[in-house]
Amino acid sequence: MNAEILCVGTELLHGDIVNTNAQYIAKKLAEIGIDVHYQSVVGDNPSRMKEGFHLGFSRADIVICTGGLGPTKDDITKEILANFFNLEMVYDEASYEHVKTMYARFRKDMPKNNMRQTYFPKGAKILKNDNGTANACILREKTDGEQYKIGILLPGPPKEMKPLMDEQVIPYLKQFSNEVVFGEKVVVVNIGESAAEEMIMDLIDNQTNPTIAPYASAGKVIFRVTAKAKSKEEALEIIKPVKEELFKRFGNNAYVTESGLVEDRTAELLLEKNLTIAISESCTGGMVASRLVAYSGISKSFREGFITYSNEAKMRTLGVKKETLDKYGAVSEETAKEMAFGAAKVVGTDIGVATTGVAGPDGATEEKPVGLVFVCVYYKDEYNVLKINATGNRDTIRERASTSVLNLIRESIEG
User: In the record, which residues are listed under signal peptide (predicted)?
Assistant: First the structure.
């Protein structure tokens, strides 16, 4: 079976809210072997909503819709679905009791317009929403073409949608799929997207199951290797030889982490090896530390971070020599080394890290242009230094530098 995700809400079209619902639903459907071929967003407009449902059901077996289940006049998603299947709206006593209970929990009187949330297309399977007033529903009906179609209506707020998707929608849809889809992300660094793809083009050209899908992210390329099978274990066995071949071709430039984030793999290694780390940052301004501490449990390894933006701070806090700054400048391999060493020495950690560069747009010279960054990892009395010539705006350069140094920590630990 295949599905289309239809998200309702003018606020989505205007960019006021990021559409995270579609991403979440698509991932959950993939896990049970249901392919998503299309994703659509429509505003709170009856004619365009009708068109969205007609188009969705014309090309998909399942249409999962989020939004438009509230109590206001423009919350008409249920009515639109009922109209598509030529069904009347019927009152549901259990949903009325649910809304009353929720308002009692809020210690508020139930407004009359909330009665809209007690009506559903006739024959719908109603899904109780424990996190909001709007119950959801599933409708499986035949169309004019005598084919069964499934319409699933979920509330828009993610905190309400996600539990309903996990606990009620996925168990319901499993009866229509006997496959699972499982994927692993092989992350490749230090190689551009085009060059990385060219290195495995023969694998991509001959792929069947598993499939290999490349996409670029800041400072890295991610290859998602995905297999369809009857179980997760079987899918892993199908993926294994392809993954091994990718590691063979990309060598130490490749690693696996579920999230695809270099900071997660780096954090995993720090914790596995029981290593402590201190980070000193200039141009990245705390970005490296921020990305690392996003990993739960990293407090066992991460001891302290310094934002030593000025030369005075580098000397006072990290012990960078004035002679080094005078001779080589703040943006130099020599300064990066002294910053990394100073961070480890001051805090007493196994690893010291440093970033220093020209993020721009000001402060550049012919010798040291915008995008020039030096990052350094001090570990086991050795310095691992990387010179970066990044392009883009200030934020892009800082992100590229932070990605590079996080990966350099990974490489230094793995040897």
Answer: none
Counting as low any pLDDT under 70, the low residues of the chain are: 145
pLDDT of the residue at 182: 87
Q: Are the beta carbons of 370 and 381 closer than 8 angstroms?
A: no
Domain containing 153 — which CATH number? 3.40.980.10
pLDDT at residue number 351? 98
Model pTM score: 0.70
Structural domain that includes position 334: 262-414
Q: What does the pLDDT read at residue 74?
A: 87
Domain boundary among 216, 234, 256: 256
